[in-house]
Design brief:
This protein is an alpha/beta fold. The chain is 42% helix and 14% strand. The chain is globular and about 65 Å long. Bound molecules: adenosine monophosphate.
Length: 416
Amino acid sequence: MHFTELNLISPILKAVEREGYEHPSPIQSEAIPLLLRGRDLLGCAQTGTGKTAAFAIPILQTLYKRRADGKAKHSLRALVLTPTRELASQVGQSFQDYGRYTGLKTAVIFGGVGQEPQVAALRAGVDILVATPGRLNDLIGQKLCDLSGICMFVLDEADRMLDMGFIHDVKKVIALLPRQRQTMLFSATMPKEIAALADSILRDPVTVAVTPVSSAVEIITQFVYFVDKANKGKLLVELLRDESIVSGLVFSRTKHGADRICKMLSRAGISAGAIHGDKSQGARQNALSGFKSGKTRILVATDIAARGIDIDQLSHVINFDLPNEPETYVHRIGRTGRAGLGGIAISFCNFDEKAYLKDIQKLLGKEIPVIEEHPFPMQIFEPTKPQPRPVLTRAERETRAAKRNSKPMARQRNRR
Ligand code: AMP
């Protein structure tokens, strides 16, 4: 199929051509005609399937046509909610790319940065708003954003909203939307809460499912190294001596771990940046743009920070720690192998993580080949004993309590 068979208006066809897209991806060829007919949609698709264009193109075309029918110049008519700031930026950029010849305006709002430029953009008039739920609720609370004109609404990565604890914020936003609207909900997985939410907000929806989680990874070459926890860093440095690892996204289970890996790589002369929830928005953007431009070779990330980030041409994904949820493994390695290009996923597994590996292999329905020959073979074959809790003095207890009390707020501010 070609984009010209989708009944798209010429400003959009021209933009798609400019992007270099030749054929619509499966979700695009299925969803675009349905959405252009005004149907509600339940999209079971993860990042990398082309889902953004699948909803952005019909929104742009519908708004363009309605404006051409004599409606107001710029008025807020479409809202896209995304779980992370990075995804919001990318989705906003996609609307700008696909809509560059339509004259429609898009604004992106998220937390962690000053609100003034975002408020100014809203005041100047926009047609499409891409937002994270926390900041959007803030602005609504301050009466700086009015959703009464929304006629098209997208909830993107709904399962991630749930994982990240944003579902309450999302529901608050939905309660403010006009009932008469077209709604699209995208989710890679369908936990019970999301299925119930979909049921309550979609009207007679069509369901479009593409690349079920496990088949998306078939084109990715996967390996596992059995290695003790203490040797993972040395093994990583050793592997990165191989120049064919042009760009690697390294996953760490914790923020602290991500920083440690990043420092260790820098000490070994390997350019690396880290992104995680404790980094400022500026530091995250810097690390990401350094990586995207090829200035840094390695990006170390936690799962939440890496969510929704679109990195073209990523050659390797390295699981420094294995995730305890097998679906997370699939999400992680799906970062490489975008647009059918293939890619390599390397995982480090210590004795404690063997159960995680078993679950992952069960989900994949196959065994991941093990690399036996390497300089740091596993030597510890028993579970790590839990460390006894230290006995603290009263002063130490108070310092810890003070730290605990100050943390969640910082985290919330960062996450929005
Ligand atoms: P998404 O799943 O929306 O995050 O898109 C993943 C990547 O695929 C992005 O880099 C898009 O620019 C790219 N893309 C989307 N649609 C197409 C298409 N029809 N042909 C080629 N690349 C595409």
